[in-house]
Design a protein that fits this description.
Shape: globular
Distance between the termini: 22 Å
Mean pLDDT: 85
Number of helices: 30
Largest sheet: none
Order of helices and strands: HHHHHHHHHHHHHHHHHHHHHHHHHHHHHH
Amino acid sequence: MNTASNLPNEEEIRLNEHKAQAILQEYDKEAGYRTFSSKWLRILVSVIAVAFALYHLYAAYAIPFVTLKHRSLHVALVLCLIFLLYPGWKKASRKKLSLLDAILAIVSLGTAGYIFIYYMDIVNRGGIPSALDVTFAVITCVLVLEASRRVAGWELATMAIIFVLYAYLGPYLPGELGHRGYTFSDIANYMYVTTEGIFGDAIAVSASYIVLFIIFGAFLSKSGMGTLFNDLSLALAGGSKGGPAKVGVIASAVHGSINGSAVASVVTTGSFTIPMMKRVGYKPDFAAAVEATAAVGGQILPPIMGAAAFIMAETLGVPYISIVIAAVIPAIMYYYGLLVQVHLRADRDNLRGLNKDELPRVKDVLRERGHMLIPLILLIVLLMMGYSPTLVAVYTIIATVVIAAFRKSSRMGLRDILQALENGIRDTLGVAVACASVGITVGVFSLTGLGLKLANIILMMGSGSLFLTLIFTMLASIVLGLGLPSIPCYIITATMAAPALSTYGIEPLAAHLFVFYFGAIANLTPPVALAAFAGAGIAGSHPQRTGWISCKLALAGFIVPFVFIYKPALMIHNSGIVDIAIATLTTIFAVTALAAATEGFLFAKMNWLTRILLIVAGVLMIFPELILGGSGFALFAAVLVLQYMKKRNAVPGTV
C-alpha cells in the first residue's frame, strides 16, 4: 500500500483547474466567451441572461405568448447573447465588444420584434410571404448560421447551407434525390414564419424543457453537487482495485447526465480524477480515456440524459418518463462494461486503490452534503407521478435553493442565485443555437421529403437485412457525430435513419435510441474525438491514441444498441419481468465476455485464441435465437472455467 497521499492537494487542484479551463476553451467553443473589461457590459449581459431565465421559469407556469412568438423570443435572446459574448474570429478581442457584434445583437432582437408586431398580418396572409417577411427571414437565417458557427463550429452551419442549396437545386439533381425545387423566398419563409424550420420541434424543446433543466443543473452545481459526487465516489469506490478510475466513472456519469456537455464533464471531473489514476499506476492515455468514456456516457444516462430525452419525447410524442425508463438498463450496461474493463485492467496490472485513511467516509459525506441528493430524488419522483417536465424543473430548482439552505457549505445567497440563473443561460446558448441551426436542415427534410428518400437509400444499401441496415445506420450516425454536437446529430439521424429501421418492425423508441447512442459515442471516435482530446490534454497523453482507447472502453456502447433492437425487453417497454431479466442477464454476459476479450484478461492473461472465442461468444449472445444465444453462453462458460482453472493452477491455494 502506498504511504504517500494519492489525492491531489489544494495547489494541484488549482493548477489542474486552470489547465482544464484552457483545455475547455480549446476543445469546447462554448467556453470561449468574452470576459469584458467594462463593468457596464458585464452588468448588461447578466441582466439579459437573468431576465431570460426568469422569463422561462414564468413561462413554465403560464405561457404568456402564442407558440411562434414564444419560440422566436427564445431564439432572439439566444442570438443576442451569443453576439455579445462570442467574438467572430480567433484574434478578436475578448475584453471589448466590437461595433459589428453590438449591431448584430440588436438586429437579433429585431427578428422577434418583427413577429410580435406583424403576427396577425403573418397569420392572415396564410403562408404567402410579403417582401418584408422574406427580408427578415433571410436576416434570421443568416444570424442563426453565424451564431452557430461561433459557438458550435463550421460543421453545423455548413450542413444547413448545403441542405438549403439542395432545396433550391432540386430540379437539377438526378434520380431519386431530385424534386421540383423551391425559390429562396419560399425556403426562407418556411424557415421563419412556420413552426417547421428554425422555430420547429428542436427549438420548441429548447424553449420549453432544455433551458429549464440546464438552469436546474446550474443550481445544483452552485450548491456544491460536484463536490458531493466526487467525495461520495471516493468513499464508495476509492479503496477498491483501481479505485481512482472507478471514482472517475461514477462522478463523470452523474455530472455528464446533468451537464449535457461531454467535454465540460471531462475537464470538470478529470482535473481531479486523472492525476489520481496516474498515481496509482494507470497509464496517462488510459486514464484520460476512462474519463472521456464516462463523460460521454452521461448523455445516455437518465434522468436528464444531457437534455436529449426531452427532444426524443417531443419527436416521438411520448411521455418523457417513457424515454427515461427505456434508457435505464442500456445506460447501466454501458457503465457496467466500462467498470469491468477498468477493474480487469487494475487486476491484470496489480493496481491498488487509495489508502483507506485518505478516503472520506460515506456517513460523513452524507451528513455534510447528502441533503443535496433530495432535489434529484424529487425530480425522479415527480416525473414518475406524471407531472409535466417543465413544472418538475421549476419545482426542483426551488427545492434546490430551499434544501441547500440547510447547510452553510451549500447555502446560496441572492448573488449565488443570480449567478446560477446567468450560468444556466450561458450553458443553454450552445444547445439552443444548435437546435435553431439544425431546424433549417430538418426544415429542408420536411419541405422536400428528403427524409423518406434517404431512408429508402439506407434500406437499399441494407439489401433487406436488418443487421446490415443497423450497421449502415450506425456508421451514418457516427460520421455525422464527428462534426456535430450529439443533440443536432440525433435530430438529423432520427429524421434520416430511424424511418428505415421502422420498416423492419422496430419500435420507434428503440430506433431513436439506437441512432442517439452512436451520435453520442462519436465524441470518442477519432479522428475528431473532442472528449478524448480534452482528457488527453489533462493527462498529457497522445490525443489520437486516447481516442482509440476510449473506443475500446466504450465497447458496451457499440454493443448495447444492437441488443435492445434484437431484445426490446432490455428497454422494459411492454415486456414481462421474466423477459426483462433474461435480456438483462444475457447482456451482462455478452458485455463481460467482450470486455474481457478487449483487456485480454479475466482471471488470468489469455492468448489470442481465447480472446477470439470470447468475442464470438459475446456477439452470439446478442441475438435472440435460442441456438445462437445458447451457443454463445456455452462458449463463454467454457472460457470462464478454463480461465478459473488457469488462475488456480498458476497460484495454488489462492482460490
